[in-house]
Design goal:
Structural class: alpha/beta
Distance between the termini: 17 Å
Largest sheet: 5 strands, mixed
Order of helices and strands: EHHEHHHHEEHEHEEHHEHHHHHHH
Shape: globular
Helix content: 40-55%
Strand content: 5-15%
Strand order of the largest sheet: 3-4-7-5-6
Number of strands: 8
Length: 351
């Protein structure tokens, strides 16, 4: 389910791909390593959603080193099946390529920023047109590169789903006409490309997308759609410094009892700077640790049969009595009552 929190962010998989291509064209990592969400621990965490501003800046740095047409081609070349996670398999595992691209359009927010990007499928007689909706400035080099890549990606995935090379009837790009576009001709498999169009789109014969996918498995599409929805629901959008801190704190908590100095090291700042930044954001170390502990304890009570004594030990409390006092302070209830309430809610939801 797409929420307001997901707006302004993209998947870490898409951000990793952008970083890979930026390096291929000679962009120095020092030029983008300082950007919010560009640290390895965030780029390599599939739960993280990277700020769109970071992804856009990386694309801009790429087009400083290479024309946007080269960026489009390289992005497509680096996009092997699975690069974009479950979204890729929505296309290749559906009963037909057409059904797959419809699923991909419906779950496009799993990879892209729902605020600025989208897909639209139009069926007109014997033709299917797949449009990439992007609200950036049409002449912006980085935006041109992303649009060019998107259409090439759709063609590649549809061909993988069909098990054969697909040749589009027509390609339109909301991008300025380049001096040369040999790479795009190879990427799309056609010379029938229009530039400076109102929208970016790629058109196929309906018959080419309606043949059964060779390796489709009954019921798999439904499983993948649910997985795509769960991936988005459980994602951690990184919008500001506090988001980064909370991600680092949660990770440190999973590894054991977090300390101020250990989390500061994860964020490559001093403990004093960390305390100061928390104060600037209107919170404190102790408040943040207590929130993480509270959420962790609630999950253990709802999702496991561990005793209160075991949960207390896992959560850094001296004994079960201390844990009960904390739960009473947070929820005005006991651990046993909280456990029963959580499981009752899950049963009503059909979980």
């Amino acid at each position: 389910m797409v929420s307001h929190a997901h707006q302004g962010t993209t998947s870490s998989a898409l951000a990793r791909l952008s970083v890979s291509v930026a390096r291929l064209v000679g962009t120095s990592p020092h030029e983008f390593a300082h950007l919010l969400g560009a640290a390895p621990q965030h780029l390599n965490d599939d739960l993280c959603r990277i700020p769109s501003a970071t992804a856009i800046r990386i694309a801009e740095l790429t087009t400083v080193q290479a024309p946007w047409t080269e960026m489009s081609v390289l992005l497509a070349q680096e996009s092997g099946i699975g690069t974009l996670g479950v979204w890729d398999y929505l296309i290749t595992s559906a009963p037909t390529p057409l059904e797959g691209i419809r699923d991909a359009a419906a779950h496009f927010a799993a990879v892209a920023d729902p605020l600025t990007d989208g897909m639209r499928i139009t069926e007109d007689g014997g033709r299917v047109t797949i449009s990439h909706v992007n609200r950036a400035d049409m002449a912006h080099e980085a935006a041109c590169g992303i649009r060019g890549y998107a259409l090439g990606l759709y063609r590649r995935r549809l061909g993988e789903a069909a098990g054969r090379r697909l040749v589009p009837l027509h390609v339109s790009l909301a991008a300025k006409a380049p001096f040369r576009h040999d790479g795009l001709i190879e990427l799309y498999g056609t010379r029938n490309i229009d530039f400076e169009a109102p929208a970016s789109s790629i058109t196929f014969r309906t018959a080419d997308l309606s043949t059964p996918t060779p390796h489709a498995q009954p019921g798999l599409s439904a499983v993948l759609r649910r997985h795509a929805e769960q991936t988005l629901t459980s994602a951690i959008p990184l919008h500001d410094w506090l988001d980064l801190f909370r991600t680092a704190l949660a990770s440190a908590h999973d590894d054991g009892a977090p300390t101020l100095s250990s989390v500061a090291r994860r964020m490559t700042i001093s403990a004093r700077t960390l305390q100061r930044r928390l104060e600037e954001h209107g919170t404190t170390w102790s408040e943040e640790v207590e929130t993480v502990r509270r959420d962790h304890i609630a999950r253990l009570l709802h999702d496991t049969d561990l005793s209160v004594e075991s949960i207390a030990a896992r959560s850094g409390y001296a004994d079960a009595r201390a844990l009960r006092r904390a739960v009473k302070r947070w929820y005005g209830s006991t651990p046993a009552a909280l456990r029963r309430a959580g499981r009752g809610d899950a049963a009503q939801a059909g979980v």
